[in-house]
Amino acid sequence: MNRCTLNPAWIGKTFDDFLFRPQEGIATSRSKISLTSSLVAGVNLELPIISSNMDSVTNGSMAETMALEGGLGVIHRGQSIQKQADIVKQVKRSHSAIIDNPLCLPLCATIGEARTFCKKHNINGILVETEPGSNILAGVLTRRDMPWQDAFDNSSVKDFMTPFLKLKTAPYDIGIDDADRLMFEGRIERLPLINDKRNIQGLITRKDLRFLRERPYASKDSKGRLLAAAAIGCTGDYLERADELLSSGVDCFFLDIAHGHSKVLQQGVEQIKKYFPDTPLISGNVATGEAAQFMAQLGVDGVKVGVGPGRGCRTRLETAAGVPQLQAIREVWCAVGGQITIIADGGIQVDKDIFLALACGADSVMLGSALSGTDEAPGKVIVDPATHTKKKIYRGMTSPEAVLQSLYETSGNESEQEILDTPAEGQEIQVPYKGSVTDILHRIRGHLRSSVSYAGSHTLEHAREKITPDPLKFLVPLSLASQKESFDR
Known about the structure:
The protein is an alpha/beta fold. It has helices at about 60-70, 80-95, 110-120, 175-185, 205-215, 240-245, 265-275, 290-300, 315-320, 325-335, 350-360, 400-410, 415-420, 435-455, 460-465, 480-485; strands at about 20, 35-40, 45, 50, 70-75, 100, 105, 125-130, 135-140, 160-165, 190-195, 200-205, 230, 250-255, 280-285, 300-305, 340-345, 365, 380-385, 390-395, 430, 475.
């Protein structure tokens, strides 16, 4: 059932067509304003920002940083199944209260093998099992236990590890507070979790407990691991990809298709829901209320809104298909608001656009070009030899360069000839190098909190409850002169 009828005043409108009328401020401190919003039912983001599933925006480093800052990263699918799954594992293992299935070496391993193992997996300690694959705890070997001289490389880890009888251990169901107390009392850095048969079930580290205290706003799952999402398609190897990603610990699938209102997507969603019914599924992209209702009826948990507004996309230029982004957001909210969550994808030029998207119906906002050019985005920094300015590559996933890279990296999707015969609807551009993405996210967080304050609210949730049912009560339409007054600087 429709929530409302789209007011004609929204037709043809996007972010620069409005300003927001300031309200009486009630927040006593902007720094304490909560921005928590829903990703899907039961999963919240402290910062409602999602990094786009583009190969020039989100891989492991970006996904990890986004989650640490309270947002979410969607790892792109323009790579092999195994590579994408490995990145999910990397993010899930990077910070967690409990490490499930911790990495182990057998008692017969050498110090040289242990050194290589630590370097490969970027860890400082190894659980040692009695025999390869036994999963029975024999001891713990840390970097401090390993002699630095190469002469000991052929020595057994057994001669340097802390043996089981001298270890502090705990059952898997130990509470985090109890684990923290036990580790403090024993002055230990690692707490192996085992059952009564000494089978290794998990591991808690001091570093991860400190992380939980220092980053209470980070996006985490029920086990205290960082949230990680990944993109899949709806043809070819998508079910195999989804299965491998789920085994790697992915928290949410983003179904990646340019035109979501299609039979192809319907078939894909039905298969994904059949085989992976418990994994949240966000699907896209759409630009109309009818398409959003179509998605909701298929049973997706969220919908991405945006056809052609992004900087790396040429769909509107090449096909004339699309809806102005703010109109699309509003139209989708009128159709499915409150039933499934809405992710505004594309068209964000400056920070004020994020608040307008959230106030007018979106639950979160996906950013691409705004987060590109950062240290965490994939790709190398390019230095112009003449001006010495630094830049990085940003490209749409249907750009010729991204399509060719995807064909090189993956297999089992649409036929290669079919892809090559389809004209490009994306483009590759150079964007200025921006440093760390954390600086951008901190700026966005600050501006969003200021917007909530100007809206006369103390939380983003309160602002949306007040504004979203009828934003036109709060928005001021702009003439060309007032647009110039507002935005030309």
